Amino acid sequence: MLTLQDLLRTRTAQPQLNKAMYFNGINSYVEGSFSFSWGGVGYEASFEALVAIEPRDIPSTYTWGYGHSGVNTLYDHWQGGWLGIVYSGSAGSMATSVKPVLYYWNYPVWVDVSLAFRTWHHMVGAFKPLDKDVVRFELYLNGSRVYASNITRSGIGSATGVSSVFRFGLDNAWRGLRFKGYIAVARIYRKVLSGSEVIHNMRFINNPVRDRLVLWIDARACDASKCYDLSGNNYHGNLYNISIISLSNPIGVGGSL
Amino acid sequence: MSSLLSPLELSPPYVYEGTTSSTAGSPTPVSIKGNVFELVVWNRSADYDMYVSLDLGSTWVRVPADSIATFFLGSFPDPLILVKSDGASQPFSVMYRLRL
Questions:
Q1: Partner-chain contact B58 A18, CB within 8 Å
Q2: B50, B86 contact by CB (below 8 A)
Q3: Which fold would CATH assign to domain A16-244?
Q4: For residue B71, what is the nearest residue in chain A, using CA coordinates?
Q5: What pLDDT digit, counting tens, does each position of B53-75 carry?
Q6: Mind listing the domains of chain B with CATH numbers?
């Protein structure tokens, strides 16, 4: 028999993550309006995403054998932060590998770790200009920092701008390919997340770090045309050829689709 | 360590007052820090229904105009509550007590 004490011991579990935005690799993307000033010494930003990547082809015209897909980005790769992936393989065949890519003011870094297809990955790319010619790039994959380097390029640290949109899934203008796969959660911060904050966000997907959180999109809070910003800033994302998929397997880092 | 005889310690009631989005149907997040024991959502509009979700929008509970919905949660750590309404910028209150 259930007693009052049993009731008082009740704990409410966090809601399960079981929905994701599906990108078809052809014409899918998410775009939302916001106002995000970037660049200059003192600027910091982190781009976070929980993604599962589907295999896709390398077009026969891509004789150089690769293509970049944006996962969680500002307007384009010429601005102050771009987290994506690069598909590699032979032109005209299916991609054989996929790796993370960071871009800042048109400077790309391919991070030399392979991402398994159809597996959930937690990725965080972070950027911090250190002086007018140096920007620090960091990438966390599944809670581990797998890349950190100070990138030197004339003017990279002093470049500034205001991004009027964020985008998920769009190819970049140079050697781009549309993203094919799933994004369950994406966030943008106006700070460099620490290692412990990255791990917190990965473990407590419903209770992320709120400090300087600018954008929080979760596929559970979407309807047919829009995903709603849970940060409180009302930077909602419009869906273009995106399906919101309910997955039978719970979404978790390292788990399969 | 609490026992069967020790009293359950709860915070005084806290109240968050807000308005739903200026776009009808668009969710408004209400973030609470702490372990929430019980929650009351009051739809203060006399004219329009509103809806509340405790699972980030997967399911919605309807709260009729000028009515309340109560939730016994026991202990729910740091919940994010979403509210949306049939009307634009509709007033609501969220009252809650934390488990200490």
A1: yes
A2: yes
A3: Jelly Rolls (2.60.120)
A4: A12
A5: 999 998 999 999 999 999 999 99
A6: 14-98 (2.60.120.220)
